[in-house]
Design a protein that fits this description.
about 80 residues, mainly alpha, two-stranded parallel ribbon, globular
Length: about 80
């Protein structure tokens, strides 16, 4: 049964003037995982993409130590 209360929608407010999917992904990940420390983490995190999306995750892990703690608790597929 889906847990609809856990669903999130974000209006992307990147400072980048043109469309940038990687910047949008980074913004959403930061807002989702760092804004609410008490939020329930998902059981699984599905990253549907390629090298660019993986690079965004790698950048976040290097820039934000808090992401390492979060991602250690989540299964990636």
């Amino acid at each position: 049964m889906p847990y609809f209360k856990g669903y999130r929608r974000y209006k992307i407010s990147s400072k980048v003037k043109q469309q940038d999917d990687y910047a949008a992904l980074k913004e959403v990940l930061i807002r989702r995982f760092l804004s609410d420390k008490e939020a329930t983490l998902p059981d699984i995190f599905i990253l549907d993409g390629g090298k660019g999306q993986l690079h965004v995750i790698k950048e976040l892990l290097e820039e934000e130590p808090a992401f390492q703690e979060i991602f250690d608790k989540v299964v990636f597929v």
